[in-house]
């Protein structure tokens, strides 16, 4: 760990990142700590966070409103790629990390800092995401990781902060570790560490309890242009407003809850609970629209790309040559993914019940079994003969 004079610290207002401020200055000899809190639509009032950083010893406390960039430049490309880690998690937290890393590096350049810092521990994925993203954006800048190296328990960390006037929590109001932004909430720890324990209702805030969901279904129509969500129920909506509105609509029906055993990059299995109402339904609707507008070979090939894409994002490789190349493929594949999808929301379920597109390659005349059928049935015999020839020849040679 190299020494630094001026540091930009990714700041949340929690115990660890608050203690990072005096720790960097008193233990590692940093002369000035600038904090940066990223507003990614999490709904928290960030002015108290800004003030707490100053009270904890920061010389400057920055709050960056990056919600629009978060949705447009990170969430929407992931939706185009149908990015679901291990076919379940739509990467709501993972997508935020490369953006925060960019904000850190940009702030360091603006304020002349020679290092950036974060409060990640050594067991999670976020340390990898931050470190690798920062290195990709500025390979020459130092990355300081005090919480990964100080070796203090939580009680010791709180006591250390109190020595420098950082107020300790009166009580641990929740046993859970929670990360949230506009795309969703990630909840872990506490009782959830037992994979047999059902998540209690109090861990959820974006989705209604199933018992409280409406007794009547609700339909929502989502419009896409080249794979990008652009409208709700026929009305054009700006990106942040679209996700915000869809979170409320979908969450009210208890849709968007995920409970999974997740394989972390560092080799640990963890039990994770997520709430991602809008993001989950947007990916579901988008994938369905692709089934109407893309050729079979493109759909099948893209499924493998999607799995690779999801792993790259989860593993902190947003700023990598491979993701750039995959993005080019995904963008090309989306040229005709324009249309609308109708989703039925009811008692924890989201079901696609309709889709339409000017670029549809579904032909009712070919698909029908009615009098309107235009499919040449006689052509099937020759097709089957050619298609089955390798299998037939293989079977014949095996009998010799």
UniProtKB/TrEMBL annotation:
EC number(s) on file: 6.3.4.5
Arginosuccinate synthase C-terminal domain location: 176-394
Keyword ATP-binding appears in the UniProt entry: yes
InterPro entries per the UniProt record, alphabetical: Arginosuc_syn_C, Arginosuc_syn_N, Arginosuc_synth, Arginosuc_synth_CS, Arginosuc_synth_type_1_subfam, AS_cat/multimer_dom_body, Rossmann-like_a/b/a_fold
Domain Arginosuccinate synthase-like N-terminal: 6-167
Enzyme category, top tier: ligase
Keyword Amino-acid biosynthesis: yes
Keywords per UniProt: Amino-acid biosynthesis, Arginine biosynthesis, ATP-binding, Cytoplasm, Ligase, Nucleotide-binding
Pathway connected to this protein: Amino-acid biosynthesis; L-arginine biosynthesis; L-arginine from L-ornithine and carbamoyl phosphate: step 2/3
Annotated positions binding ATP: 10-18, 38, 119
Subcellular location as annotated: Cytoplasm
GO process terms (BP): argininosuccinate metabolic process; L-arginine biosynthetic process; urea cycle
Residues reported in the UniProt entry to bind L-citrulline: 89, 125, 129, 177, 262, 274
Binding site for L-aspartate: 121, 125-126
GO cellular component: cytoplasm
Similarity comment: Belongs to the argininosuccinate synthase family. Type 1 subfamily.
Protein name: Argininosuccinate synthase
Organism expressing this protein natively: Stenomitos frigidus ULC18
Gene: argG
């Amino acid at each position: 760990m190299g020494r630094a004079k001026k540091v930009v610290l990714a700041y949340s207002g929690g115990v660890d990142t608050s203690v990072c401020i005096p720790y960097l200055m008193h233990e590692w000899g940093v002369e000035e700590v600038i904090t940066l809190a990223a507003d990614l639509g999490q709904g928290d009032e960030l002015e108290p966070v800004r003030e707490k950083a100053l009270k904890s010893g920061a010389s400057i406390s920055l709050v960056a409103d990056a919600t629009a960039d978060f949705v447009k430049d990170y969430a929407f490309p992931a939706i185009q790629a149908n990015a679901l880690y291990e076919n379940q998690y739509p990467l709501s937290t993972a997508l935020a990390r490369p953006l925060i890393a960019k904000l850190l590096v940009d702030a360091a350049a603006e304020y002349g800092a020679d290092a950036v810092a974060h409060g990640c521990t050594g067991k999670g994925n976020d340390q990898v995401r931050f470190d690798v993203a920062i290195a990709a954006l500025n390979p020459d800048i130092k990355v300081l990781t005090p919480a990964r190296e100080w070796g203090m328990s939580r009680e010791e960390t709180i006591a250390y902060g109190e020595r420098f006037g950082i107020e300790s929590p009166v009580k641990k109001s929740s046993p859970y570790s929670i990360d949230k932004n506009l795309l969703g909430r990630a909840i872990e720890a506490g009782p959830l560490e037992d994979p047999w324990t059902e998540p209690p209702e109090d861990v959820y805030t974006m989705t209604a309890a199933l018992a409280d969901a409406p007794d009547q279904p609700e339909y929502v129509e989502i419009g896409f242009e080249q794979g990008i969500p652009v409208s709700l129920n026929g009305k054009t909506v700006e990106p942040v407003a679209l996700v915000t509105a869809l979170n409320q609509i979908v969450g009210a029906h208890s849709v968007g809850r995920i409970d999974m055993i997740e394989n972390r990059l560092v080799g640990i299995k963890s039990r994770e609970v997520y709430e991602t109402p809008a993001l989950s339904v947007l990916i579901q609707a988008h994938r369905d629209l692709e089934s109407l507008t893309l050729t079979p070979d493109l759909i099948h090939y893209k499924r493998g790309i999607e799995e690779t894409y999801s792993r790259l994002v989860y593993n902190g490789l947003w700023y990598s040559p491979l993701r750039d190349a995959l993005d080019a493929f995904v963008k090309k594949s989306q040229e005709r993914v324009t249309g609308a999808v109708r989703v039925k929301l009811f008692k924890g379920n989201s079901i696609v019940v309709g889709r339409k597109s000017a670029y549809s390659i579904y032909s009712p005349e070919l698909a029908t079994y009615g009098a309107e059928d235009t499919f040449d049935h006689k052509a099937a015999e020759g097709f089957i003969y050619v298609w089955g020839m390798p299998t037939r020849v293989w079977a014949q040679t095996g009998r010799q």
